[in-house]
Amino acid sequence: MKEYQHAEIGVFGGSGFYSLLQNVKEVKIDTPYGPPSDAIMCAEVAGRKVAFLPRHGRHHTIPPHKINYRANVWAMRRLGCKAIISPCAAGSLQLHVKPGDFVVCDQFVDQTKGRLDTFFDGPIVTHVSPADTYSEGLRNLAIEVIKENGIPCHDKGTVVVVPGPRFCTKAESKWFTSAGWEVINMTQYPEAYLCREMGMAVVNISLITDYDCGLVAGVEAVNAESVLEVFSKNSERIRNVVLGMISKMPQDLDSLGGMDALQFSRGDSHAATELDIRLFE
Predict the structure, then answer these.
(1) What is the rounded distance in angstroms from the CA atom of residue 205 to the CA atom of residue 132?
(2) How far apart (Å, rounded) are the C-alpha atoms in residues 36 and 48?
(3) What is the CATH topology of the domain spanning 87-274?
(4) Which of 210, 252, 260, 276 is catalytic?
(5) What's the pLDDT at 268?
(6) What is the reported pLDDT for 126?
(7) CA triplet 5, 11, 17: central angle to 5 degrees?
(8) What's the rounded Cα separation, in Å, for the pair 65 and 187?
């Protein structure tokens, strides 16, 4: 069996998270689903072994509809990760969710098309519930650390995930707003759900960059330049939040409930056992 660097906590994010850390090791992992977005950077943070993977590649060269989500998530699980922190840039669909705010989402709505979104496509077949994809324990920890950093925080919210790379039309944005959803993004599905299928606890932190089409705030429609500008301003804040969360992670990451999704999907641990065999054979 090929030897890999070990990690217990994974972060889907860019170089800003690990560029200032000491003794960072670059790890390349082969997966049954093809190559991940980039090499994984492994480092120690507050005594915990952490893996960092930029979902768009380190130079942001992979658009959301081309990300190999299954390879990215499989690689994190292969390293041994049990908890995943998944920050992302996102738009607001509601007036009270302002640019610069952080939203710790508790639900998602999938509006993507044709993405490869399961590990159970045969011969292992099971049905992992997405009812509560995001870990409540990780969500509570994220909320605590965000507030400690003085960042405006929304304790819950629904993120609607669109295919990308295009932004929404005004009609689409109006539809999502009228449905009461708070956040819009292009990468949370299937990333978060695949983490759940792999038995890893996952949390999303949405960094609000804009008011989508501008309908709810009477401002100009979103464009890529404005998103990147606001996101870059938030980079230090989200870095502090992620590193703060890692320092407060429970020693027993199983207590976050990641494996529960697999164990209850068939009434036993069969699916989890089969995946472990596939991962570590």
Answers:
(1) 15
(2) 23
(3) Rossmann fold (3.40.50)
(4) 210
(5) 46
(6) 85
(7) 95
(8) 8
Active site residue 212: yes
Tokens read off for 150 = 């003085």
Residue ranges of the chain with pLDDT lower than 50?
A: 1, 3, 267-269, 277, 280-281
pTM equals: 0.91
Whether residue 254 lies in the annotated active site: no
Predicted local distance difference test score (pLDDT) of residue 1:
38
The DSSP call for residue 215 is T
| Active-site entry in 30, 117, 121, 212 | 212
Tokens 């069996």 found at: 1
Residue with the two structure tokens 């164990």? 263
Whether 35 contacts 70, CB under 8 Å: no
Interatomic CA distance for residues 237 and 40, integer angstroms: 22
Residue 259 has a pLDDT of 85
178 class by beta-carbon count within 10 Å (0-12 exposed, 13-18 middle, 19+ buried): exposed
If one counts every other C-beta atom within 10 angstroms of the C-beta of residue 270, the result is 14
Provide CB contacts within 8 A for 130, sequence distance 6+.
108, 193, 196
> Which pair of structure tokens corresponds to residue 250?
């429970």
Length of the chain: 281
